[in-house]
Write a structure and sequence with these properties.
With about 260 residues, this protein is α/β, with parallel strands linked by helices. It has eleven helices and nine strands. A hairpin with a 2-residue loop joins strand 1 and strand 2. The N and C termini lie far apart (about 45 Å).
Length: about 260
């Protein structure tokens, strides 16, 4: 277990804290392994009734560590640390809650689509800049976003890749509550405690029924996205975008077809 992901169990709640603040909680393969291990452990532990994902008062996650992901994904998507984590999250039987502040970029936004309750601070900035990086959507976002908020809005968020606020996310129905940053985690924890005190089998059955209509299609979409995402990581467009990021300039896609 990496110390960049902190795990704590208390009152039947498993808190999973992203803890790489010097790099804005950018996620590495090892961190994804730890996140996936936490979900797998929660599934098997009868003393865990709810999982809480959080970061700090200032940062949830800036997304993938581009320096590490620029080399591609190590193997078939579902067998990679990020693929395993996303599939475990999408199929979790127990409720998952998120407390989000500051940057929530890329997977920092798409992973929230699989959480049952999301609390976001007023300082949160969501963004899915996949196309801006020469990549494509992931985490089932190409399926879930159009069905939840409509194709035009989904296209705007995924193709233009601009940032949007917690108030925007609440209006779109993507989160449950907007909080003051200092209160976000406490509000989320209150919800976790309520879930942990309810009838556990009833909560699991309710979640299963909510997910049942789209689960098979979601898995299929996530695998297709993952395969294309891996291909895009090796593309000249992604290489240009990653170079531009390191050089702190805008990428130049003018020569690509």
């Amino acid at each position: 277990m990496t110390d960049l992901v902190l795990i704590e169990k208390s009152d039947r709640i498993l808190t999973v804290r992203i803890n790489r603040l010097d790099r804005k909680n950018a996620l590495t393969h090892a961190m994804y392994t730890a996140l996936g291990d936490a979900l797998a452990a929660a599934e098997k532990d009868s003393d865990v009734r709810c999982v809480l994902f959080t970061g700090s008062e200032d940062c949830f996650t800036a997304g993938n560590d581009l320096g590490e992901f620029a080399t591609g994904l190590p193997g078939a998507f579902e067998e990679t640390p990020v693929g395993r984590f996303l599939l475990l999250l999408a199929t979790a039987s127990k409720p998952v809650v998120a407390a989000v502040n500051g940057p929530a970029v890329g997977i920092g936004t798409t992973m929230l689509l699989h959480c049952d309750l999301v609390f976001a601070g007023t300082n949160t900035r969501f963004q899915m800049p996949f196309a801006n990086l020469g990549l494509c959507p992931e985490g089932g976002s190409s399926l879930l976003l159009p069905s939840w908020i409509g194709r035009p809005r989904a296209a705007e968020l995924l193709m233009l890749g601009g940032a949007f606020t917690a108030d925007d996310a609440a209006r779109l129905g993507l989160i449950n509550r907007v909080c003051e940053p200092a209160e976000t985690e406490a509000r989320a924890l209150d919800a976790c405690k309520q879930l942990a005190n309810q009838a556990p089998a009833a909560i699991r059955a309710t979640k299963e029924l909510l997910n049942r209509p789209t689960l098979n299609q979601l898995k299929e979409t996530m695998l297709a996205e993952g395969e294309l995402f891996a291909e895009r990581l090796k593309s000249p467009e992604a290489s240009e975008a990653f170079r531009a990021f390191v050089e702190k300039r805008q990428p130049d896609f003018s020569s690509f077809e």
